[in-house]
Automatic annotation (TrEMBL):
<dbReference type="InterPro" id="IPR036390">
    <property type="entry name" value="WH_DNA-bd_sf"/>
</dbReference>
<feature type="domain" description="HTH arsR-type">
    <location>
        <begin position="1"/>
        <end position="95"/>
    </location>
</feature>
<dbReference type="GO" id="GO:0003677">
    <property type="term" value="F:DNA binding"/>
</dbReference>
<protein>
    <submittedName>
        <fullName>ArsR family transcriptional regulator</fullName>
    </submittedName>
</protein>
<dbReference type="InterPro" id="IPR036388">
    <property type="entry name" value="WH-like_DNA-bd_sf"/>
</dbReference>
<keyword id="KW-0804">Transcription</keyword>
<dbReference type="GO" id="GO:0003700">
    <property type="term" value="F:DNA-binding transcription factor activity"/>
</dbReference>
<keyword id="KW-0238">DNA-binding</keyword>
<dbReference type="InterPro" id="IPR051011">
    <property type="entry name" value="Metal_resp_trans_reg"/>
</dbReference>
<dbReference type="InterPro" id="IPR001845">
    <property type="entry name" value="HTH_ArsR_DNA-bd_dom"/>
</dbReference>
<dbReference type="Pfam" id="PF12840">
    <property type="entry name" value="HTH_20"/>
</dbReference>
<dbReference type="InterPro" id="IPR011991">
    <property type="entry name" value="ArsR-like_HTH"/>
</dbReference>
<keyword id="KW-0805">Transcription regulation</keyword>
Amino acid sequence: MSVPLYQAKAELFRTLGHPVRIRVLELLQPGPRPVRDLLAEIDIEPSSLSQQLAVLRRSGIVVSYRDGGSVMYVLSTPAVLDLLAAGRRILGEVLTDSKGLLAELKDRVEPRS
């Protein structure tokens, strides 16, 4: 039996819900990278990076292949780039709205009881 679309989407977002995984996806934006390069950019233990890469691989967000002696990782679809860009836009709008609301709250004088 297949899962409902909303459940599959929730699982995708749970997969993306880890800072190391997001950082890996950002680092893979320009194209394939070997694990050693990812390790050099992310300050975590190799075993931790391996775990996070496995989660991304199992979900189908990234794929891996061997190139000589290196294991390379690459985004499975360009749509991942769109998702990361959408996240940046949403954060930009939310943070802009929050700053505006904060300024409005500071400008408004509340009546004392």
